[in-house]
Amino acid sequence: MGCEPLPEDRREVVHVHRVEVALGGRTVLHDVDFRVGEGEFVGLIGTNGSGKTTLLRAILGLQATTAGEVIVAGRPGRRGGPVGYVPQRVAFDHDVPVRVADFVALGVDGTRLGLARRGRGVRERVEAVLASLELSALAGRRIGALSGGEQQRVLMAHALASRPRLLLLDEPLANLDLPRVHETIAVLDRVRRAEGVAVVLSAHEIGPLVPVMDRVIYIAQGGVACGTTEEVVRAEVLSALYGHHVDVLTVHGRVVVVEGEAGDPGAHPEVVVR
Amino acid sequence: MHWLVEPGFWSNPVVGTALVLGAVVAVVSGAVGVVVVVRGQSFAGHALTDVAMAGGAGASLVGAAPLVGFLLAGVLGGGSMEAAGTERVRDRDVATGVVLGAAAGLTALLLYFVSSSSSATGSTQSVLFGSVFTVSPSVVPLGVAVAAGTLAALFVVRRPLLLSSLNPELAAARGVRPRAIGLAFVVVLAASVALSALVIGAILSTALLVGPASAALRVARGLGGATLGAIAAGVAAVELGILASYDSFYWSSAHRSVPVSACVVGVILVEVALSALWSRARARRG
Amino acid sequence: MVARASASGLAVFAPFMANAWLAGTLVAIVSGAVGLFVVVRQRAFAAHAIPNGAFAGAAGATLIGASPLLGLVVFAVASALGVAALGRRRDDVVTALALVTMLALGAALLAASGAYEPAIDALLFGELLGVSRAEVVALALLVVGTTVVLTVVFRPLLYSSLSEEIAAARGVAVRVLDATFLVLLAVSAALAVPVVGALLTFALTVGPPAAARMLVRRPGRALALAAVLSLACVWAGIASAYWSGWPIGFFVGVYAAVEYVAARAASSWRDTRARP
For residue range A96-155, what is the model confidence (pLDDT) as tens digits? Predict the structure, then answer.
């Protein structure tokens, strides 16, 4: 399943080219093909277990593909590329002797051998990234002592510190309350404009992303459908993706995606668009 | 049969005691070991053997029964690991290490007192390596009683224990108190380890706790099946190991037997390797 | 073990004690520094298992007439690489099986060689008083080597300790680093164990670094404080052992635990005060 090519005026940052991934003998992603352009904000939408994390890991080079290839910034995707990554959860040890500023600095020079003193460039970059994510007050705190929401924001700062061309975020909204969700999306939107970084964010709810998203990549049954929200979140598109009938209903101004036949006891709302 | 079982194996009373006690310990270790592997507490399971040693040394200093000393120290040490560890779950590794370091220091002191008050030599070695062949038959009734108590306690707490190991959030929602359950389990673990460390030594205690259970968990589909499998694998390893050690005396020209611990560990490694091959083959079949 | 108390208390600084002080100091520095990463990477079990398992190597070496130290190093490095290759991070089952395999091998080799029992006691508990000048020199080289390796890999090692996933995505060779770290742990343990004993080495590797990381927030300072706290344990341990005549392992084990408990109390107190 593929997607339309990028518009002429958008430079490509990543091209996932007909990628297939098998895990433990099961094909998790099948013939996935899409591109993301410079500075784009893309939502990767799908239910739990639909392969969102696997797809992100394949782009990062952490997950081997069984077919196809990933091109990041014109080169074959591999570890250490110009990609920032915010995993869904990092369980920091409460007592680990590392401050927020130390961790963000590791985003810049953590791969470097030797113990040369951090130059002013690194320190200024750390301060700037912390400031742009409104984290300056936390810079001297122990990373393990932060709340889950604070840690996630620090992970974003860490991922941005190396000036990546692409920022991948795995379910960053999953454990946040609604005001925090909107705040996080607003910060990401601001940062991607300021830094010119493309953002690919995975989520199981499309709703809060609609105002800022350039495009949506909908993932289900190992394949993807992409385009603008209006193009993708339609009964015929999603039915084709799922391989069976899917209803898209508008209820009190919210769009509800219902998977399964009417009267099917297993049917449940999949995606809610407010 | 003589090529398989050398003369005197069945009639030898020392071998008889070893076979019985070894089997009892293997049963308890298998049942407890499955939970240990699922909860990722192998380090605690091993460290408790060293902690129990401190109790053994203390008991021989005051002239008490060694098993009492082993049990007391094991339960105290396990309790302090759990008390220090669960408050911050990810600190468990460090808490276990600190308790182990302190207990080993205490053992050094107690052994020093023991060796300066009597001329007992080789106590370190016998505690470390143990030898089923040197266990006195008088330990059998008490050992069986401790084993039965341990199994009964494990049976009572098994449901909340497994739930809190596999799905802590669901367990908490059902009203299971993770600290209380963790403490209850560590007491069970300490009793099991203390018994096996005394009877078969520290090496075999850890080997029987972790090896058969990890092999069975790879092969069996459910936890009940894994428990039965671990018990069977553990008993088989002990009995075959004792037989091999006994026979080895006749095999070598020098008439020096291979230690029981090495024989049992050998069987356990074969079991673990077979289970790894099995699970790999199953994954390939899909 | 340390000799009985002498008439003059100051004899603890007598010339024949010089090597003991030097050896203890060097081991403390290495154990504290390597130990910080043992604690942060949650590798306490491996830190216990590798030196204990390596004694099979010493037994094997006596059997074939080679140097026991060489046997220790070879077996320690082999078990470190085995744990690194077979075990995913924190896979304690693999560590446990590696440990019992090595110990059983040691038991079999000892039985075959008929080695003298006190040799085992010495390996477990060490003989700090019997340290020779040559061993002090070997330990000094160990301190230099460990410092160099730790300095070179410090940042990527810290990075992969915080999140293996993120570090790998950024291009850190996490598996190579893990193996490097375990080999470092193995070599330092193998060289320190015959001098001060497996017990003392392990106690220093866990307690003082675990305390240090709770007391300071920066990685570099935690490394320095771990070495300092470890030194405090050893120095106090030597002095206490000298004056009481009791084994040094007892004092070091207890002092390390006391440091840990005190640091935890301090950090909990700080946390409750910070909270409104």
Answer: 999 999 999 999 988 888 777 778 888 999 999 999 999 999 999 999 889 888 999 999
Q: Chains meeting C at 3+ CB pairs closer than 8 A? A: A, B
Q: How far apart are CA C274 and CA A266, in angstroms?
A: 49
pTM for the predicted model, two decimal places: 0.86
DSSP string, C224-259: HHHHHHHHHHHHHHHHHHHHH-S-HHHHHHHHHHHH
Q: Where in chain B are the domains? A: 13-202
Domain B13-202 adopts which CATH fold? ABC transporter involved in vitamin B12 uptake, BtuC (1.10.3470)
Name the residue facing A111 among C165, C170, C221 (closest C-beta).
Answer: C170
Would you call C168 and A97 a contact, using CB atoms and an 8 Å cutoff? no
Q: Do residues C206 and C35 touch, judged by C-beta distance below 8 A?
A: yes
Chain C residues with beta carbon closer than 8 angstroms to that of A155: 166
Q: Chain C partners of A109 at a C-beta cutoff of 8 Å?
A: 155
Q: Which domain holds residue C78?
A: 2-274
Report the CATH number at residue C106.
1.10.3470.10
Q: What residue in A sits closest to C268 (Cα-Cα)?
A: A95
Number of separate domains in chain C: 1
ipTM for this model: 0.85
Candidate from B90, B284, B286 with C-beta closest to A94: B90
State the Cα–Cα distance between residues B75 and B79, nearest whole angstrom: 6
In SS3 terms, chain B reads as CCCCCCCCCCCCHHHHHHHHHHHHHHHHHHHHHHHHHHHCCHHHHHHHHHHHHHHHHHHHHHCCCHHHHHHHHHHHHHHHHHHHHHHHHHHHHHHHHHHHHHHHHHHHHHHHHHHHHCCCCCHHHHHHHCCHHHCCCCHHHHHHHHHHHHHHHHHHHHHHHHHHHHCHHHHHHCCCCHHHHHHHHHHHHHHHHHHHHHHHCHHHHHHHHHHHHHHHHHHCCCHHHHHHHHHHHHHHHHHHHHHHHHHHHHHCCCCCCCCHHHHHHHHHHHHHHHHHHHHHHHHHHC
pLDDT digits (tens, 9 = 90+) for C200-210: 888 899 999 99
Give the best residue of A89, A93, A143 to mutate against chain B (max B CB count within 10 A): A93
